[in-house]
What we know:
By secondary structure, the chain is an alpha/beta fold. The protein has helices spanning about 10-20, 55, 65-80, 90-100, 115-130, 150-155, 160-165, 180-185, 210-225, 245-250, 275-280, 295-310, 315-335, 355-365, 390-405, and strands at about 35, 40-45, 50, 105-110, 140, 175, 190-195, 200, 205-210, 225-230, 255-260, 270-275, 340-345, 345-350, 370, 370, 375-380. The relative contact order is 0.15.
Amino acid sequence: xxxxxxQKPDMGEYIQQAESxxxxxxNRYQIVLDRGEGVYLxxxxxxxxxxxxxxxxxxxxxxxNEEYNNALKSQIxxxxxxxxxxxxxxxxxxxxxxxxxxxxxxVFFTNSGAESNEGAIKAARKYAFLKDGSTDHEIIAMxxxxxxxxxxxxxxxxxxxxREAFEPLIGNVRFADFNDYESVLAQVTGKTCAIMLxxxxxxxxxxxxxxxxxxxxxxxxxxxxxxLVFDEVQCGMGRTGYMYAWQKYGVKPDIMTTAxxxxxxxxxxxxxxxxxxAQRSLEAGDHGTTYGGNPLACAAAExxxxxxxxxxxxxxxxxxxxxxxxxxxxxxDRFPCVTERRGMGxxxxxxxxxxxxxMIAAAMEKGLILINAGANIIRFVPPLTITKENVDEMVSILxxxxxxx
Length: 405
Ligand SMILES: *Cc1c(COP(=O)(O)O)cnc(C)c1O
C-alpha cells in the first residue's frame, strides 16, 4: 500500500495490509496493538485498553516490567543463541528454578506449548517401548481438551473441528470424558501408555478437574504402570493460585508440560518428568530442537520465575482471584443470559446462552480486551498482577456490554 510520505498508515490501512500478506488463519479483532504498560495495552492510535487476555494467559507479570526487560536486554548483548550441543548458564539456572517450582526432576526446553506436548507424547511412547519393545501403544486424552496445533498435539486434542481436515494424525489415541473416571477406564487396554489431560481445561471451557477424578487417575496409572501426563500450558505458572495446578490437587503427574507464561512473551516452553521416567524414556539422540533452551529464552524464564517469587505473585493471585470470582458471580446473578461461572483462580469463564463475539467486540470499543473460549464463553485470563480496582473496571464495562447485548 502506498504511504503518503511522513504520514503513518492508520489502523484501517495496516489491517488492509495485514490481510494482503498474512495467511488468514485468524478472524482478528480490528485493532493494531502498539505497546503495553502494566495491565493496559495501547493501539497505534493511542487508545488505551484494560487487558484481561494477557496475550492468552502469557503476560503474567504485566507489560513493561523493568527488571524483566533489563534481563532480556543484557542477555541480548551477551549471547542470544547457541546450540544444544553446548551448555549455557541461563538454561542451567532456568532449569534449576523450574525444577524447584514444579516439583519435577528433569527439564527439556521447547519453544511452545504444542512442542512441549509433542515431547511429552514421545517420552511416553518411548517409556512404553522400552518396556515391551512394541510400537503400538495408545494414549487416552479427553474430549474438549486442547493441546496445540501440531500433528501430535492435535491428535490428542478432543475437538473434531480442529482435527478433521488434517487426518490422519498420529494414531492410537482414544478419547474419554473429562471428570468421568468410568469413561477413562473403559478406554484402558493393555496397550495404554499414557493418560493426558489439562488439570483445568482452558480452550475447552475453563473446566477444572475434580479432585476425585485426578486421584483416581493417579491410582489407575500406578496400578497399571501408565504415565499420567498433565498439560499445564495454560493453567500453570501461578494462574490457579498454585505454581502448577496439580499442586492444588496434590496429584503429581509423571510428565508435565508448561509454556505460555513461562517466558512472559518470549517463546519458551518445557516438558518435565520425574527422575523415574527420565531414566526409562528419552535418551541421547531421541529428541532435539535448534532453538529450545537458548540463552535468551532461558534468561526470560529464569527472570520470570525469579519475579514470581520476589513479587509474591502466587500470594497476590490468591488474594485477587476470589474477588474476581465474586464479581463474576454478581454478573451471573444480574443477567439471565449468563448461565454459569466456572474456572479456578485467575482463569475464569462466564458461560452465556448465546454467542459472545459481539459482546467482546463491544467491550473492545469501550477499552476492554477480553477473549472467548468456544462460541458462548467469555474467558478471563488477565495478567496475574491485576488489582481489585482493575477487576471493578472490567466488571463495570462488561456489565454495560451484557446489558446492551
Ligand atoms: C495454548 C495451549 C497449548 C498450545 O500452546 P502453543 O504455545 O500455542 O503451541 C497447549 N495446551 C494448552 C492447555 C494450551 O492452553
